Amino acid sequence: MEEAAVSLIASYLPTTDVHVHIVHVSAAGVVPILEKARLERIHAGNKGWRGGVTAETCHHYLTLSSEQIPAGHSEYKCSPPIRNNTNKQQLWEYIKEHRLDLVASDHSPSVAALKSSNFLESWGGISSVQFGLSLFWTQAKARGFKLGDVSHYLSAGPAQLCGLQSRKGAIRPGLDADLVFFDPNASFVVTPDIIFYKNKISPYMNRVLNGKVIQTYVRGQLVYADGQIIGGPKGQLILKDGF
């Protein structure tokens, strides 16, 4: 179904210049379909970022595999679903070859009451926004990736997609000082007591993750340090007027 849906979208791409971004790529077979459409657009003269055809995958597709899912544990339920280990390894090959553009959390919180042992009835979605950097680094480090690869997929890529590359996504004069002090050699265990988001449900519970965020700055202001949130929200709304 995922490949069929993307194939349908790709069939319309030659007739339009609108930027198309595919979210939540879980099936590795999607990537060649998009690459073919991108090349056709570039040859037709589209000079947009990546020919106006981009795609993202998510931390759960790069960390988990269907073989690991215990029966009745709907904290693993998401859409598209988590696929097998062979598929996961292929996604990492695409990451290595820069054939995907960014990695997102697709953070989907759910109260415990909506996560029953019945997969068909349970809420679909995985909460991971707090642990995304460590989830990605745990898998990337084991495959020989460098911290620059993390920055590319978790920072520069999202900034480019949102049109914020002149403000965010890199460390250079004139850009917002959005900074993370990150210890790549530290490790920690995911437990309910360290989770900041409201609903403390996670398929990563009791998993050891590598790499730990020590401090976080938003536009030069310290907002997190040593396990503590500092001050109130400091973000800015980016919605257009009328929304």
TrEMBL record:
<feature type="domain" description="Amidohydrolase-related">
    <location>
        <begin position="21"/>
        <end position="223"/>
    </location>
</feature>
<dbReference type="Pfam" id="PF01979">
    <property type="entry name" value="Amidohydro_1"/>
</dbReference>
<dbReference type="InterPro" id="IPR006680">
    <property type="entry name" value="Amidohydro-rel"/>
</dbReference>
<dbReference type="InterPro" id="IPR011059">
    <property type="entry name" value="Metal-dep_hydrolase_composite"/>
</dbReference>
<dbReference type="GO" id="GO:0006145">
    <property type="term" value="P:purine nucleobase catabolic process"/>
</dbReference>
<dbReference type="GO" id="GO:0004038">
    <property type="term" value="F:allantoinase activity"/>
</dbReference>
<protein>
    <submittedName>
        <fullName>Allantoinase</fullName>
    </submittedName>
</protein>
<dbReference type="InterPro" id="IPR032466">
    <property type="entry name" value="Metal_Hydrolase"/>
</dbReference>
<dbReference type="InterPro" id="IPR050138">
    <property type="entry name" value="DHOase/Allantoinase_Hydrolase"/>
</dbReference>
<dbReference type="GO" id="GO:0005737">
    <property type="term" value="C:cytoplasm"/>
</dbReference>
